[in-house]
Design a protein that fits this description.
alpha+beta; 10 helices; 10-stranded mixed beta sheet; 5-stranded antiparallel beta sheet
Length: about 400
């Protein structure tokens, strides 16, 4: 394998130009840690023509091509369906990504936002390939980094790669939602997976004044999620805000099971039917999607087309046995709702209030975590305040 020092320096240069990388210490880490070491089992590249995933390993392509792939400015899928790795496949395969090497811009941008200082005891939730772990080990020292990975095979592969890179850190196999109390309390805690809420366990395991950084999406949607940065307070609560858009694979324990079966049967018995001035197309936008999850954290969004091409947009909250079904009639939309929760009413109210407030960016969202609940708010408007109890 060729020396990748030039590629690492070029990566650091690109990240600096894109304003994801600014501190000399993190730049030194990016230039020192070979990303290719953490892709030893290969990657799955998307085949746009077939919708399948093409396995590529270091041995299946030339060294030059492999290095080019390893240093792409994109996320690289390393596992499908919770078990299949590229070195186990010989031809394109279907599947759902369950582990990846996240795009370096996101990794480094989050590490910069963590505001670490020398000697900080830091926990990482979601080891993945181990690349971000290695960057933290270089910056903070291997004894100051604890990383937790739920998948035993992923954890073992990452641990081997970390050892090869020269880092004997604390690699723990377990449910990251529980943190790792044996190495607590932490000065910093960072999650490289998306969560529906910040587990209060993380707050308990972080020192007062410490920072928690994690991607949050109350409904576990694949988009419409935000990077939350919270500071733990002396009273055992944590408060902060969403500092920007962020997208990660959901924590394994919180991944949604796709709805199956006859969707029309699920929405057969409506309690109400009315016209709505708000098109469900608005939910394709990032901020409205985030608001929809705040307003109805248990709802899943499904788009369906009938044989005559007619579109129906469904929102199902299976836990509360509620649904909303929206159909287009010319330029207007009709919504049918059923169950104890009026899903579309809640979403329509939140998005409309946001529009009336001037459509602030996701960074306007503040949140507080207590032992009992999560509270979110934008400004002082009551319609833009939500409380999600933990019971």
């Amino acid at each position: 394998m060729p020396d990748t020092t030039p590629e690492r320096k070029a990566l650091a240069d690109r990240l600096t130009e894109q304003e994801h990388l600014s501190s000399p210490a993190w730049r030194a880490a990016v230039e020192a840690v070979p990303r290719e070491l953490f892709l030893s089992s290969g990657v799955f590249l998307p085949d746009d023509d077939t919708g399948l995933w093409r396995p590529v390993t270091p041995d299946s392509v030339s060294p030059h091509e492999w290095v080019e792939i390893a240093y792409r400015d994109e996320s690289l899928v390393t596992q499908l369906d919770g078990h299949l790795t590229p070195d186990q496949a010989t031809e394109p395969v279907p599947g759902f990504p369950t582990s990846s090497s996240t795009v370096p811009a996101t990794v480094v941008g989050m590490l910069e936002a963590l505001d670490v200082e020398d000697g900080h005891n830091t926990a990482e939730i979601g080891t993945g390939t181990g690349y971000s772990t290695a960057l933290m080990c270089h910056r903070l020292g291997e004894d100051n980094v604890t990383t937790v990975e739920v998948d035993p095979e992923v954890a073992a592969t990452a641990d081997a790669a970390l050892e090869k890179a020269g880092f004997s850190t604390w690699t723990v196999t377990g449910d990251g939602l529980l943190g790792n109390p044996r190495r607590a309390p932490y000065d910093r805690l960072i999650a490289t997976c998306a969560v529906r809420r910040i587990p209060y366990t993380w707050v308990r395991q972080t020192k007062p004044g410490g920072i928690i950084l994690a991607t949050i999406g109350p409904g576990a949607w694949s988009y419409g999620t935000g990077l939350a940065k919270l500071t733990v307070k002396e009273d055992g609560t944590a408060e902060g805000r969403i500092i920007g858009r962020s997208s990660f694979m959901p924590a394994r324990a919180e991944a949604s099971v796709p709805l199956s079966g006859d969707l029309t049967a699920r929405a057969a018995y409506a309690d109400t039917e009315r016209n709505t001035a708000l098109s469900p197309a608005v939910l394709e936008q990032w901020m409205p999607a985030f608001l929809a999850q705040l307003a109805t954290p248990g709802a899943q969004l499904v788009r369906a087309h009938s044989s005559d091409g007619r579109e129906t947009v469904y929102l199902f909250d299976t836990g509360r046995e509620s649904f909303a079904a929206l159909t287009r009639d010319g330029e207007e939309w009709t919504v049918r709702q059923g169950g104890p929760v009026a899903i579309w009413d809640a979403i329509e109210g939140a998005v409309t209030a946001w529009q009336e407030t001037g459509e602030p960016d996701i960074s306007a969202v503040r949140l507080e975590v207590t032992p009992e609940a999560h509270a979110y708010w934008i400004g002082d408007k009551p319609a833009l305040r939500w409380q999600h109890r933990l019971d």
